Amino acid sequence: MGVLVNSKYAIISAVRNEAEIIKSTLNSVVHQELTPHKWVIVDDGSTDGTTQILKEYEREYSWIEVIEKNDRGHAKLGGGVVESFNVGLKEIDFRTIDYIVKLDGDLEFESDYFKSLISKFENNPKLGIASGLTYFKSSNNSLVKENAPLHYAIGPSKVYRVSCFKEINGLVQDLGWDVIDVIRAQSLGWETRNFPELKLLHLRPMSSKAGIMRGRFRNGLTDYLTGYHPLFLTARSIYRLFHYPYIFGGIMIFSGYVYGQIKVRKQLVTATEKKFIQKQQLKRLLGIKPVRK
C-alpha cells in the first residue's frame, strides 16, 4: 500500500544559531515529494543570522511559520528543545493532520524521505513512532552510521502518529524526552522503530552541539533518568569504548549514569515504565530481539 492521498503531516522544529547549516534542512523540506501541511519553526533566540534566513523561506512558502523567542543567552539542551517544540505545538490543529514531526535544523535528506516514512505508518497501523537513521561524514567523506537499536526512533527526526502522540501525553520537558516517549508508546502497545534505509545526513554528530564529551556524559545521565538497568548501562558503556570518541566516550557515559545515581536520584519514569524498559534491556542482553516486520 502506498501513501494515502489524504495523509497529512505537520513539522515542528526548534532551532538556535544554525545559520551555517539551516539552509540544508530548509531545502530538504521544501523539496519533499509529500509537502508538509504546515511547518512551524521556533527560533530560540538565534543571534547569528538564522532568523533572517528563516524569514526568507517564510515569505516564499505559505505553509512555513516562524516563531521568534527571546534570547535566553544560552542553549538549553534537552528540556529546552521540548519547551520550544511545545511553543510550536500550540500552532498545530490536530484535526487537520495524521502525523506530527519533530525535526532538528541540522539534517539533510532525500526528497522522498517523508513520503517513504509515512508509507511505513500506512502499512502498519500499530506503528506509533518512527524515524530514519542518521549518518555523518567522516574525515575521508564516507558516511558513518550513528548506531541506534532498531526499536528506537531517533531524536533528531521523529514522526508520531497523532493518536499515539496523544496517548503518551506529548513529550516530557527534560533530558531523556526522546527515550521516555518510546518507552511509553511501547508500554501502551505501540510499535516504535527506525528504518536505516531512510538516511538522514547529520551535519554535526549526535550529542555534539555542546561538545561530544559533554554529550556522552549527558547520554549517561539521561540513561539514569530514564531508568536504564545497571547491567545494560555497563554493557553500553563498554560498547562505546570502541567507538568515537574512543575510550573516553564510554567512560563519560558511565560517569553520567553514576552522577545521576549520586546527585539526582529522582528518575523521570514511573515504576511500571522502569520495570518495562529494564525487562526489555535484559532480553536484549540475552540476545532476545523483538520481531520486526
Please tag this protein with its features:
9-stranded mixed beta sheet, 10 helices, about 290 residues, Spore Coat Polysaccharide Biosynthesis Protein SpsA, Chain A, glycosyltransferase, globular, alpha/beta, single chain
Short description:
By secondary structure, this protein is an alpha/beta fold. It is built from ten helices and nine strands.
Question: Mind explaining what this structure looks like?
Answer:
The chain crosses the membrane at residues 241-259. Pfam families: Glycos_transf_2 (PF00535). Keywords: Glycosyltransferase, Membrane, Transferase, Transmembrane, Transmembrane helix. Belongs to the glycosyltransferase 2 family. Residues 11-149 form the Glycosyltransferase 2-like domain. This protein has ten helices and nine strands. Strands 1, 2, 3, 4, 5, 6, 7, 8 and 9 form a nine-stranded mixed β-sheet that branches. It folds into two domains: 9-202, Spore Coat Polysaccharide Biosynthesis Protein SpsA, Chain A (Alpha-Beta Complex); 212-284. The chain is globular. The protein is of the alpha/beta class. Helix 8 (230-240) runs antiparallel to helix 9.
Give the arrangement of secondary structure elements.
Blueprint: E1 9-15, H1 22-30, E2 38-44, H2 50-60, E3 64-69, H3 79-89, E4 99-103, E5 107-109, H4 113-123, E6 127-137, E7 143-145, E8 157-161, H5 162-167, H6 177-187, E9 191-202, H7 212-225, H8 230-240, H9 248-264, H10 271-285
Parallel strand pairs: 1-2, 1-4, 2-3, 6-9
Antiparallel strand pairs: 4-8, 5-9, 6-7, 6-8
Helix pairs in contact: 7-9, 8-9
Organism: Exobacillus caeni
Domain Glycosyltransferase 2-like: 11-149
Family: Belongs to the glycosyltransferase 2 family.
